[in-house]
Amino acid sequence: RKTLQESEAKYRLLFENSMDPVFLMENGKFIDCNKAALEILRCPHKDQILGLRPSQISPEKQPDDRLSEEKEKKAIYFTYNERKDQFEWVHRTFDGTDFWVQVSLTVVPVNGKQITHVHWRDITKQKHMEAVIRESEELYRSLFNNSMDAILLTVPDGRILAANPEACKIFGRTEEDLLRTGR
């Protein structure tokens, strides 16, 4: 009995003191969460989260334009069948700010019930940086492709890695041909 109590106390400490948001779900609804979950959601009281479904603390649609409620149902169904899942999701704080998380779901049996352990890792900064890089690449591509000057990207041994349309026009060759022949 003492060993079981010690084990439960260790689990509770790990759950409560995790720096990442952690939730427990049953039948698709939150039944518990830690302090980090309250902080990321900017929620003052645990009671405001308990009983909610993940889609209820999410924008109506996810970035792929699918309804959060529909994606939630599929994720829960998949998780219960596979016993685990991992995916990216956009949630919304209680004050209306959207943020990205990587969600890890694991189904565990607890007292004859199927409880889902939910772990979030905030990836908002990573997603922001990906967007900045994507915009920078689009700007580069636009400048490269629309330049009135011929541009060849080469490596030290002289091989051509890319040629813009103006370079192809001047050399009278396709980009593929320039890349293949290297001149």
Structure description:
The chain has 183 residues and is α+β, with helices and mostly antiparallel strands. 41% of the residues lie in helices and 27% in strands. The strands form two sheets. Strands 2-1-5-4-3 form a five-stranded antiparallel sheet, sandwiched between helices. A two-stranded antiparallel sheet has the order 6-7. The longest helix is centred in the C-terminal third of the chain and has 23 residues. It starts with a helix and ends with a helix.
Low-confidence spans: pLDDT under 50, at least 5 residues? none
State the shape: elongated
- Give the rounded overall mean pLDDT: 93
Cα end-to-end separation: 78 Å
| β-sheet strand percentage | 25-35%
Computed CA radius of gyration, to the nearest angstrom: 25 Å
Strand order of the largest sheet: 2-1-5-4-3
Following the backbone from N to C, one meets helices and strands in this order, namely HEEHHEEEHEEHH
- Number of DSSP helical runs: 6
Coarse structural class: alpha+beta
What's the story with the biggest beta sheet?
5 strands, antiparallel
The helix fraction, in percent, is 40-55%
Q: How many distinct beta strands?
A: 7
Sum up the structure in keywords.
two-stranded antiparallel sheet; alpha+beta; single chain; 6 helices
Give the topology, please.
Layout: H1 2-17, E1 22-26, E2 29-33, H2 35-41, H3 68-82, E3 84-92, E4 98-110, E5 113-122, H4 124-146, E6 152-154, E7 160-163, H5 165-171, H6 175-181
Antiparallel strand pairs: 1-2, 1-5, 3-4, 4-5, 6-7
